[in-house]
């Protein structure tokens, strides 16, 4: 009997020690709250897309960089300098007109143009790879110049 009484008193003492001194009023006090970062994680793919831009666009059948493309690549270069641990892949893409072979070659020229520009701005070439998807991975679907223009691009992605 004594053992049961001692056990019950021990459990009661443990529960009393765990009691919360702060009543739950439904009001957040900030105690124990984890700090949640706002926005994308710095140096991530989402950070690149949101704060810099991940793609540059090209004219029909062209792989030369426009002034808009260079401006985006300048921002990418600065971003890559800020995050030297990040490696990227640059994918060249084309609209769905033309042969598969032609579009693969054109997509590779577009990816190379972006890579070469970033390298000239100081990004180490060992941090960059290129690939051409030709017309196999459109970013926009449908027909017409607006859609085709969206698919003529080079997209930089974090690896």
Automatic annotation (TrEMBL):
It is found in: Cell outer membrane. Pfam families: OmpA. The keyword Transmembrane helix does not apply. CDD domains: OmpA_C-like. One of its GO terms (biological process) is cell division. It is a lipid-anchor. Its main location: membrane. Residues 45-159 form the OmpA-like domain. Residues 1-21 form the signal peptide. Belongs to the Pal lipoprotein family. Part of the Tol-Pal system, which plays a role in outer membrane invagination during cell division and is important for maintaining outer membrane integrity. The Tol-Pal system is composed of five core proteins: the inner membrane proteins TolA, TolQ and TolR, the periplasmic protein TolB and the outer membrane protein Pal. They form a network linking the inner and outer membranes and the peptidoglycan layer. This is Peptidoglycan-associated lipoprotein. It comes from Acetobacter estunensis. The gene is pal.
């Amino acid at each position: 009997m004594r053992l049961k009484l001692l056990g019950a008193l021990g459990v009661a003492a443990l529960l009393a020690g765990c009691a919360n001194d702060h009543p739950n009023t439904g009001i957040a006090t900030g105690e124990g709250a984890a700090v949640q970062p706002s926005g994308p994680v710095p140096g991530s793919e989402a950070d690149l897309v949101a704060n810099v831009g991940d793609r540059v666009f090209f004219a029909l059948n062209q792989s030369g960089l426009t002034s808009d493309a260079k401006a985006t690549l300048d921002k990418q270069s600065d971003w890559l300098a800020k995050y030297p641990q990040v490696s990227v892949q640059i994918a060249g893409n084309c609209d769905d007109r033309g042969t598969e072979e032609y579009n693969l070659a054109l997509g590779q020229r577009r990816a190379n143009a972006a890579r070469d520009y970033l390298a000239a701005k100081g990004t180490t070439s060992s941090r960059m790879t290129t690939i051409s998807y030709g017309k196999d991975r459109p970013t926009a679907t449908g027909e017409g110049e607006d859609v085709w223009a969206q698919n003529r691009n080079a997209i930089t992605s974090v690896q």
